[in-house]
Amino acid sequence: MNLKDWAFVIDVGTGSIRCALVDAAGHIVAIEAKEHEQIVPQYGWAEQRPADWWAGVKHTAKALFNARPDALDRLYGVVACGQMHGTVLLDRAGDLVRDAVPLWNDKRTAGLVSAFEEEHDVERLMAQVANPPTAAWQGFKLQWFALNEPDVLGRTATVLMPKDYINFRLTDERATDWTEASASYLMNSASRDWSSEAAGALGVPLEILPPIVAPTDVIGQVTSEAARATGLPAGLPVLAGVADFPAALLGSGVCNGGMGSDVTGTSTIVTVHGSRPVLDARVSNVATVDGGWGSFALLDSGGDAVRWARRAFHENKLSYEEIADKAAHAPPGSRSLFFLPYLTGDRLGAQRNARASFFGLTAEHTLEDLHRAVLEGVALAAAGNVSLMRGEGNALDEVVAAGGGAKSTLWLQIKASAYGCPIRVPESSECSVIGSAITLATALGHFDSVTQAASDFVRYDRTIEPEPEWAERYRRMREIFDQLRTASGPYYDALDALEAEAQSTGMEAGARYG
Questions:
Q1: What is the rounded CA–CA span in Å between residue 303 and residue 126?
Q2: C-alpha span between 49 and 165 (Å, rounded)
Q3: How far apart are CA 345 and CA 351, in angstroms?
Q4: Contact residues for 199 (Cβ-Cβ < 8 A; gap 6+)
Q5: Do 310 and 421 belong to one domain?
Q6: Are the C-beta atoms of 464 and 426 separated by less than 8 Å?
Q7: SS3 content of the chain, % helix, strand, coil (to 5)
C-alpha cells in the first residue's frame, strides 16, 4: 500500500538545522539535527552563512532517509519554518550577494532605530506596520546595508528570510509568507502587502521585496537538482511555510481568540491571540497562520532572572530543582517583597534602561523569600504585559506554556494566579515542528482549517489552575509593582549618568581598591 501520510518538516534554527518526519496524527516519527555556528564579527553583531543552512538540510534529510528509507514512499509534501528577521540577499542569478547575513539578534542597527524614532512619526507608521521600531526588524537591516554597504544592496535582486532561502534552494521560487513579512517593519498590516511608505522611510527599494503569500500556499515543487542534493522525491509540493514563532503558536494550539502563550527560556514572551494587532509602543505583533494576529511582549529577564539568582546566591552550586524547592517554602507574596526583574533593561517602551531591584526587604526576609520573589517578579511583569494586551479588547481564557519555565510547577502556579487563567502544557516540546506539519496538512486538504488540524495534532500533558488566594494577593501586588516600575524611571537615567562618571574617572567595579 502506497500511503502518502507523512510530512517532511525543515526547521532553520539559530543553533541547528533540523529535519523531521511527522505522521498523520501529529506524532514526530523521526528527527535529525546538524549544528551550525554563529559568527560575531564585532560586539553586538550576529551572522550566519546561508550556505551552512543548506548544507545542514542536505545532511539531515539524507540522515533521515538512511534511518527511515520507507519515508520516501510516504511523503506528501515539504514545509519549512525558521528563525525570523535574518536578511538573505540574492542576485538575479540566485547567488548569495553576501556570504554571511545578519540574524534576528544582530544589534548593529540600534543607532539607526534611535535616529528613526527621532526623525519619523512612528505612531502613525505603527498604524500601518503594526509594530514599534526595533533593531530586530529586517527593514532596519536593509537600511543599514543601504547606508554602509550600498554596493551589496545594489547587486541585490531579492531579499529573503532564512526559511525562504531554503524554499528557494528546493524550488527555485522566491517568495515569503505573511508571518515573516509582518515582522519586517515593511508590511502593511491591513492589506498584507508591502508598505511603500515604510519602505520609503527606510530607503528600501520595493522591487527587491518578494511576493507575500499565505503560509499554506504551495509555491513550487522539489526540483530535480534539489532532489539529488537532499534525497527528497522530485516534484514533491513545497509550501511557503511559516516563521518559527507563529509556527510554535500554532503547534501549541494557540490559534483561537481567548488563547495565549507563555514561552519562558532566557526571556519570557507572552502572546495573546486576537483578530487584529495591538497598537502600542510596548507591544509587537506577528500575523498568524490562521489569519489572525499574535500580539506579544517580551521580558528579557525571564529564566535569566532565575539563572542570575542561582549564580548570585549559590555560586551555581544548587540545582534549579533545589532553588524551586526553597521558593516553595516561602508564602505567596514573599512577605510583601517585590522583585523588579529588569536585569538587562527592557526591550520596548519609555524605560528601556530599566534596572532590577528588590523592594520591601526587611530583616525578617529569608533566602526562600528572595527566591520566590524572583519567580513572582517575572510573573507580575509578564502579567502587566498581559493586562496591556487585554486592554485592547482581547480575551484571555487560557495560556499555553512552553520553554524551560514550563518545567516548574510552582512557577506555572504563580503565573496562572498572576494571569488569572489556567495554563496548559503541551505533550510535545517540538511546537514549531508540529505547527509546520499542521500548516502542510491543512494546505494539502487533510483538514478544512488549521484550527481543526491543531485540535487533532496538539495534545496537552497537564493543566495548572490559578490558586484563588494567590490570585487576589498578586492582584493587589500588581498595583504596587506597576507604581514602582513607573516611579523608578528617573532613577534609571541617574544611574546611567553615575555609571558613566565612574567609567570616565577609572572607578569601575574593583578598580578603586584593586
A1: 30
A2: 11
A3: 8
A4: 139, 186, 205, 206, 209
A5: yes
A6: no
A7: 40, 20, 40
Q: Quick one: which H or E segment has residue 101?
A: strand 101-102
Would you state the cell numbers that stand for residue 152, as one nine-digit string? 551589496
- Specify the pairing of strand 396-402 against strand 423-426: parallel
- Assigned domain for 370 exists: yes
Position 349 scores a pLDDT of 58
* Average of per-residue pLDDT across 158-187: 98
Asked if residue 450 is part of any domain, the answer here is: no
Q: Which three cell numbers stand for residue 87?
A: 536578511
Extract the C-alpha cell encoding 150: 550600498
Residues 6 or more apart whose CB falls under 8 angstroms from that of 30 comprise 20, 21, 64, 67, 68, 71
CA 504 to CA 304: how far, in whole Å?
29
Place of cell 516561602: 330
- Distance from first CA to last CA of the chain, Å, rounded? 76
Judging by beta carbons within 10 Å of its beta carbon (0-12, 13-18, 19+), is residue 483 exposed, middle or buried? exposed
Question: Using an 8 Å Cβ cutoff, are 82 and 163 in contact?
Answer: yes
pLDDT one-digit tens code per residue, 473-511: 999 999 999 999 888 888 888 888 888 888 877 755 454
> Beta partners for 32?
19
Tell me the pTM.
0.90
Mean pLDDT across 17-39: 96
Question: Is the residue at 438 inside a domain?
Answer: no
Q: Both 196 and 258 in a single domain?
A: no
For residue 210, the enclosing domain spans 6-240
Rounded to whole angstroms, how far apart are CA atoms 244 and 447?
21
Please check whether residue 410 is in contact with residue 307, taking contact to mean a CB–CB distance below 8 angstroms: no
Q: 28 vs 58, 127, 207, 241, CA distance in Å?
A: 19, 40, 39, 18
Is residue 512, in this structure, part of any structural domain at all? Answer: no
Residues in the chain: 514
With a CB cutoff of 8 Å and minimum separation 6, the contacts of 91 are 97, 155, 156, 157
Q: Which helix (H) or strand (E) holds 285?
A: strand 284-287
The domain tally of the chain equals: 2
DSSP for 438-452 reads: HHHHHHTTSSS-HHH
Check: CB of residue 138 under 8 Å from CB of residue 185: yes
- Of 194, 209, 240, which residue is a domain's last? 240
For residue 46, the 8-state DSSP code is: -
Look at residue 6 and give its three-state secondary structure: strand
Of 217, 240, 263, the residue that ends a domain is: 240
SS3 283: coil
